[in-house]
Design a protein that fits this description.
The chain is of the alpha/beta class. It has 11 helices and 7 strands. A hairpin with a 4-residue loop joins strand 5 and strand 6. Belongs to the peptidase C48 family.
């Protein structure tokens, strides 16, 4: 639409259009494109996880953790576990199980995880339900399974925000947790009774990493052989500042691994 008193660009008037085509890309535009390209640069391959330069920016600021960072930290924790009876499920797999549009194919997807062989299984929960939207969602929580207690425990740092998504994942996997002898009918789901709560709107992913580390440490220290209280007593030591410090801890871990490459 033309401005007041001006002329619009008619279909046959190509002068303005040709001028636009010939106009060189400005230095600022080139710099912006270069900056975007650098943000997407691969900085580290760790096991099956590829981290990008933009992931470092997330850890340096007060931002919502993406699934790449959580998957990296899960993989790092898994590498530190000598036992084969604990599994930290990558966020992308947890998401697909919860939102799989083809329920009949779920068995082929879940069975390779060998869930009945695990004493402890850790899942991340995200409130994104759109399988076409990568890096979606606004809140993370953690769902942990403990075989001896026959229980899934949901850990949500923002009340019960992700409760329905945790219930969905529980319903989708509970049938795969038991073997032919024990079955899965007795496996229950509960909310963590003393889950620490976040003090802001962006640290939920850090609570997931903190609780995952806590459970792994509990398991390595023989927790699964004395499971009356599970890992709940250790949760009392999880405080907001400690969780917030995990940003710099994970950042330094990535930088150390980059330096060794």
């Amino acid at each position: 639409m033309a401005g007041k008193g001006g002329k619009g660009l008619l279909a046959g008037d190509t002068t303005a259009a040709n001028k636009d085509k010939k106009r060189p890309v400005s230095r600022s535009s080139r710099a912006g494109l270069q900056c975007l390209s650098m943000e997407d640069d691969k900085i580290l391959s760790y096991n099956d996880v590829v981290l990008r330069r933009s992931d470092l920016g997330i850890l340096r600021g007060q931002e919502f953790l993406n699934d790449r960072i959580i998957e990296f930290y899960f993989s790092y924790l898994d590498s530190g576990c000598s036992s084969q009876d604990i599994l930290l499920v990558p966020p992308s797999i947890s998401f697909w199980i919860t939102n799989c549009p083809f329920p009949d194919s779920l068995k082929d997807f879940v069975e390779p995880l060998k869930l009945p062989e695990k004493r402890v299984v850790i899942f991340s929960i995200n409130n994104n339900t759109d399988v076409s939207q990568a890096q979606g969602g606004t809140h993370w929580s953690l769902l942990a399974y403990e075989k001896n207690s026959k229980v899934f425990v949901h850990h949500d740092s923002l009340g019960n925000s992700n409760q329905r998504y945790a219930k969905k994942l529980y319903r989708d996997v509970v049938g795969f947790m038991g073997d032919s002898e024990s079955g899965s009918s007795e496996i229950s789901l509960s909310e963590c009774p003393i889950m620490p709560q976040q003090m802001n709107g962006y640290d939920c992913g850090l609570y997931v990493t903190a609780i995952a580390k806590l459970i792994c440490d509990w398991h390595k220290n023989g927790g699964s052989t004395n499971n009356e209280e599970l890992w709940f007593s250790a949760l009392k030591e999880v405080r907001p500042q400690m969780v917030s410090n995990m940003r710099s801890d994970i950042l330094m871990l990535i930088q150390d691994l980059m330096a060794k490459k």
